[in-house]
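Dear support,

We are seeing what looks like truncated structure output for some complexes. This example has two components. We would appreciate it if you could run it in full and send us the complete token output so we can diff it against ours.
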Amino acid sequence: MTENKETSTTRLPGKQELLSEFSKYFPKENSSTIVAAGDDAAVVETNGNQTVVSSKAFIENVHFDLTYFPLKHLGYKLSTIVFSDILAMNAVPSQLMVSIGISDRFDLKMVNELLTGIAGCCDTSHTDIVGFDLTASPRELVVSLTAVGECEPTLLCSRKGAAENELICVSGDFAAAYTGLLLLEREKKVFNVNPNAQPDFTGKDYLLQRQIKPEPRTDIIEALRRENILPTSMTNVCDGIADAALKICKASGVGCSIFEEKLPMTELTFVTLKDLDIVHTVAALNGGDDYELMFTIKQGDFENIKRIDNVSIIGYITDAASGYNLVTGDNLRVELRAQGFTQ
Amino acid sequence: MTENKETSTTRLPGKQELLSEFSKYFPKENSSTIVAAGDDAAVVETNGNQTVVSSKAFIENVHFDLTYFPLKHLGYKLSTIVFSDILAMNAVPSQLMVSIGISDRFDLKMVNELLTGIAGCCDTSHTDIVGFDLTASPRELVVSLTAVGECEPTLLCSRKGAAENELICVSGDFAAAYTGLLLLEREKKVFNVNPNAQPDFTGKDYLLQRQIKPEPRTDIIEALRRENILPTSMTNVCDGIADAALKICKASGVGCSIFEEKLPMTELTFVTLKDLDIVHTVAALNGGDDYELMFTIKQGDFENIKRIDNVSIIGYITDAASGYNLVTGDNLRVELRAQGFTQ
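Here is the complete output from our reference environment:
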């Protein structure tokens, strides 16, 4: 949300611009630094073995809203988010460190709830909690998570590496988490006007679950290894398909064509977005919170990828000069832009 | 500060108690987890190589006060703090990840100041910044830092390992940072009453420097390697000598005798504490913010340790039954307690 924040002297630019703004602070001096600031996670090497590290701070009322977020689910979701950064390097998370800052609105029972959620996600991901710090925070709840993962150097994927004619794949389906958020926000408004109102989410469970309890896609990384597929590039989809595709294309110096009709979406998401008067393609391209994976593969892997459930081919890589394109249902080419429902 | 915070339902216990309270969340399942929650840093192993990781979140008005903390110095100090956790495992920091949450009181120039300080400390420590994230924070400045370090498995030290008759050593001198804090707090009170008052810190530079810009003691780790000394246990001194000694003793299942007269302190610290009417031993035992190292060595290393500047032997390890003792100048034995000027 920093991207839109105005200050008295300077408008804060987006994350990628900030990285260039401050790039002078990120020289790569140690030979053990393999991937530095600017990818999904950092990669550190010791004697040929690579450790992948991702760290994120989440702040109440910026990254989450406790009005509708149960603490247990919050713990689960924030863990999924940092694990997703590790998975996006084609690595598997193995350890997590937790720092929590709480105000006097909180008691040990609430910390317990939050930790139960974090531990639940660690359990799903076979990850150990190896660090824990609890401190005071004047007001907002602050949760800082650091995930550590393991990767054989030959399997490591970064955003850089996609080449012309390769296929663009994504896991899962899109816009469900964003649609879930819209429903929650709508009910919050109703509740603010009438605190006795009971939310009605009948039949919308999947949308809420995708927003409140997204799962780390460790299964996809495991399936890729099982099928002997080494993606040529990879990133996680946290701010919509357009943002993820642009990250891969810009890092790899290539263009892309993505087919509107190939964007995976459940019927429930489609119908609910229609009820909410939102164009479903826009939601898939720019909605956030999916924490799915996007990766590119060589054409030779086409038969193998079809054996993995929950993976869709949504387009292909082009040369840089062709630009970043969405091919619509009626075969029009529209420039792909990241509108950034970013956090 | 959480230790003294009362909530409506539960009093938050200290950090070590919290670790036991929540210990069910910290099972060690992965063979790659070497040291888990409860030591200065976590240790992760991949094919025999160890990576040391420490992560901490710092929140304005809990961990630091911007009234007297220039942002550049703050960045330097917070980096020293996380590096100190890595050094406390007898490892050397190699990478740092930075997450900053800022409110609209901040602009890019201020973020630049903070990063200059962080980068300055990274420069001193030959450490690369490999991750950077900037996000919004509703009010307080939040800085979350994750340090990664390298260690040969044979050199790794934890808090556990001290044995009877071994010597207890510390780097540097004590209570200076705490005395610096007292001076800053005193001037802040004066300023609050009379905003035109100019602070007078003449001759107190060293005390302020120890509070505002503590240095990571990489030099001590390097010197230990040069002199071929492998400590049997190690921790960093962030909350006073008593707290550090108790951490080592409790983890190692031993007792200790520490000599009051051996506690290293500069003349300036001693005199200033006297002016402030504070017992200097209490300040050395319980004052915080030193970020020095405490470690135990075998008696056979006595001659070698004398060759390292800035290291003092302050006592020795006893059996557990003898307890944790301070031997006073008049040869009385007083039980050592951590009073916790903790953060």
